[in-house]
Structure formats: structure tokens, C-alpha cells
Amino acid sequence: MKHWKKYLEAKKLVDKTKKYSISEAVELAKKVAYTKFDPTLEVHIQTNANPKYNDQQLRWTVVLPHGTGKQVKVAAFVSDDKIEEAKQAGADIVWNTDLLSQIESGKIDFDVLVTTPEMMRDLAKVARILWPKGLMPSPKAGTVTPKLADTIKEIKKGRVEFKLDKGGVIHVGVGKLRAFDSKQLEENIKALLDAVKAAKPSGVKWQLIKKVHIAPTMGPGIQISAN
Questions:
Q1: Looking at the structure, do residues 78 and 139 belong to the same domain, yes or no?
Q2: What is the distance between the alpha carbons of residues 74 and 120, in angstroms, rounded to a whole number?
Q3: Residue 43 in contact with residue 212, Cβ under 8 Å?
Q4: Structure pTM?
Q5: Full 3-state SS string of 127-159
Q6: Is 9 a member of any domain?
Q7: Which long-range contacts (CB under 8 A, 24 or more apart) does 191-195 make?
Q8: Interacting residues of 131 by C-beta distance below 8 A, sequence separation 6+
Q9: Are residues 83 and 143 located together in one domain of the fold?
Q10: What is the pLDDT along the chain (227 residues), one digit of tens a residue?
């Protein structure tokens, strides 16, 4: 009940009929964030894409200029000759057959799994475990790559994946509202929007982005202009 009251008070500060500029929206998001913990600023992009059709599916990545504020634990599934390369690039866990055993036993202690094309056949053994958790490496997500070191470094720096949900909406956290200053959040949002526009599926014959809202965790949505 207390949460609902705070939410309603915050909601009154947002003009639902207005499209705010990114800078205005970020400042307003900071005002309406009422949680005791530092909330994530979430971006919700409603698109004109229909993921039911193969030529309208969208799944890609973007390196946010200032990261997300979250420490990402990266695991690398690689051949013996690439173990040192993965470690030097900053991977938190580097294994091959041992990693498969850990996954099969249910011990999954990482946020992102990276591998190389030649190792995908071996990794297929645990695909049934990784797919439901969204952890199975994929070329579209940039986590199956011959450029192992570059990929690991980008992920540690702040690379995030974005994709459509069943309703054609993209949801991405772009930073912590209190830990990040306004300019950092604005630049992260702009980088995300640019990446989404650049990843427009061939099957979408009209403008890809329909509406964009930003919102703090547990806070009201604020519509922004995506132009």
C-alpha cells in the first residue's frame, strides 16, 4: 500500500500527453524514482516489427558508452589454445570440458557465455539447459565469435544485447539512476536508439520505432521523442 501511494505521487509528475526530450526525461526520471535502492533506468521501445515473421525478427548488441553499472560475469567456453587469450581479455570463468560438467550439474555462475564457432558442436550438449535461461551463445547476439578477446572486452565494458519480446517490444537497462549522471544516461539512451534503428529488419517496410518510454525500476513511464 505504501509503495502504491508513492507510485501514484510520482505518476502525477509525468505528463502522459507529452513526448519529452531525452534530457528532460532523464531529469524527470531522477525525480520520480522513489525506491531506497539505486534503481535501473529502463528503456522500453515499442516497434512496428512482428517477431512472428522471420524477416522481422531483431536481435543485436550495442556497446553502451558508460556501461550499465552492473558487473557482468563472463564465462568463456574455448579450446585449450585459447584459454590464456580469454583470461587476458578479462573472462571471469575459462573452461572447456569442465564447464560442460558444471552446467550439466546445474552450477551456472555467470551472466554471459562466449565461445568460438568451432566449439559450438561441443556446447550443443548443454543447449537444452542454456536456451531456457537465455545463456546459449548465438552469432546474432555476438557471443559466438572468432574475435574472442575483443568480444570479452566489449561485454566487460558495457555491451548489452537487445531483442524483441513476443509483443515486438525491446527492454534494456541503460544504467543506474543515482550512480550515473544525466549526461551518461542520455548518451547511453542515444547509443541504444541508434543501434536499434541500424538493426532494422528487412521485413519492416515502415519506421521501426513506434514509441519509446523510459522508467526507473518500479517507477512510472515517461515517453520520449526517438527522432
A1: yes
A2: 17
A3: yes
A4: 0.86
A5: HHHHHHHCCCCCCCCCCECCCHHHHHHHHHHCE
A6: no
A7: 191/62, 191/63, 191/64, 191/65, 192/43, 192/62, 192/64, 192/162, 193/45, 193/226, 194/62, 195/60, 195/61, 195/62, 195/162
A8: none
A9: yes
A10: 667 888 899 999 999 999 999 999 999 999 999 999 999 999 999 999 999 999 999 999 999 999 999 889 999 999 999 999 999 999 999 988 888 999 999 889 999 999 999 999 999 999 999 999 989 999 988 999 999 999 999 999 989 999 999 999 999 999 999 999 999 999 999 999 999 999 999 999 999 999 999 999 999 999 999 87
What does the block give as the cell for 179? 550512480
DSSP 80: G
152 and 163 fall within a common domain: no
CA dihedral 186, 188, 189, 191 (to 10 degrees): 120
Which of 156, 187, 212 is the last residue before a domain boundary?
156
Alpha-carbon gap, residue 15 to 26, rounded angstroms: 14
Same domain, residue pair 185 and 78: no
Rounded to an integer, what distance in angstroms lies between the CA atom of residue 56 and that of residue 198?
A: 14
Closest to 203 in 3D by CA, of 48, 60, 55? 55
Q: Which domain holds residue 88?
A: 74-156
In the chain, how many domains are there?
Answer: 2
In a domain, 143, yes or no: yes
